[in-house]
Design a protein that fits this description.
alpha/beta; three-stranded antiparallel beta sheet; nine-stranded mixed beta sheet; globular; binds magnesium ion; 12 strands
Amino acid sequence: MSGSVLRRRRESHRIHTTMRHPHSRRAFLGGALALPGLQFPSLAQAVQAKTTPYNRPKLKITDVRTAQVRGHGLQLHVRIYTDQGIFGHGEGTDAVVGGAPIVRSFRNFLMGQDPLNVDRLFERIRTAGIFAGAQAGQYVAALTAVETALWDLAGKATGLPVYQLLGGKMRDRIRLYCDSQTEDPKDPEAPKKMGQVRDMGFTAVKIDVDDGRDPNRWDAMNWTASNAEIDTMVSKIRFVREFFPKRVDLAVDMHGRYDMTTGKRMAKESEPFHLLYLEEPVPAENVKAMRDIRESTSTPICCGENLFLRHGFREVLEERAADIIMPDLQKCGGLMEGRKIADMAHTYYVPVAPHCVVSPIGTMASAHMCAAIPNFLILEWHWIQRLELWKNFVQEGEIIEKGFVALPERPGIGVTMNEDAARKAKVPNTPWFEAGL
Ligand code: MG
């Protein structure tokens, strides 16, 4: 009889003995370990440290809890607890208003499940929700936070960083662009604010040029930009482009607010500035309209921060509507779904520049996925106006160094929430990982 067969028999005997003798020492310890609050953390950690993943008792999900934080917008944090003292932590964003009750509806299904079958759990929840909005929006954003927590958990259970579970890493550090604090030539603070971005060492910045309050708008509802509005938008691009050295890339966001006329015109006006990309000159929901703009210009067009799942990106790629796509990995379906979207894009030679507006937990989760794909371009960072919260949000402290995130070799996502700091940004009257809510 081989060693592995013997080991499996011993394991099977151990589990069945525990079931037959619920008051045995092993069962007592197992019961203690089963509590999410964990009465014997060192024992649980020892079990994790001393046995290989395949020889451990199967993990079981024992609870799913949430907390809500207001950082850049709303973030939904999800923790998935197990019977062996480890938990996974994931983060969802933007489309998570009302996300906590959706996560609680997933909890009934997740309880008792083996959390290591991440794709299986994801697919079961997704397909179970086809009449509940599982094609996009809040349902998928809530599922995204759960999916990320499962990957964190899988990494902690196997002792591996998440990037390893996503296929291994192509790179050791992830390039970020800083979402600028200003782009207004009339802002007296602009040199100081842009100087801060430059001094932090970022190799790329992004500015927003759309402005619904521009006094040169003729109509509050119509989004055809006037000549004066176009001039203002171009002056912002020129102002920022001239401030930063040429080696710093510049991206420009229009937030999908304009019509075809303005979109085409801005793409053409942007050509002399050799942008990294122009983002969503028109909304991404009409793929052929985006394609028409792309075909009209040499300015690279990027879109997709509000698209969900592989299905949301299929037509964009098939119609060649974008030079670059930007799935939000805390919203579009999660880390493996993001990897699958990136793989689809790679067959069209389209790089991926994920949208990212979350805390260091979600940013690091995104970094693991960005490490695993060949066609990674750049990752967003949007917390420069929340530096105090950013630097204290995880116990590991600042995760950015000179515009890059270095990938940790710790198990899971590799960062742990500093609850004292994070709680300061808690959304009032919402749970904070409390049980039974
Ligand atoms: Mg954007």
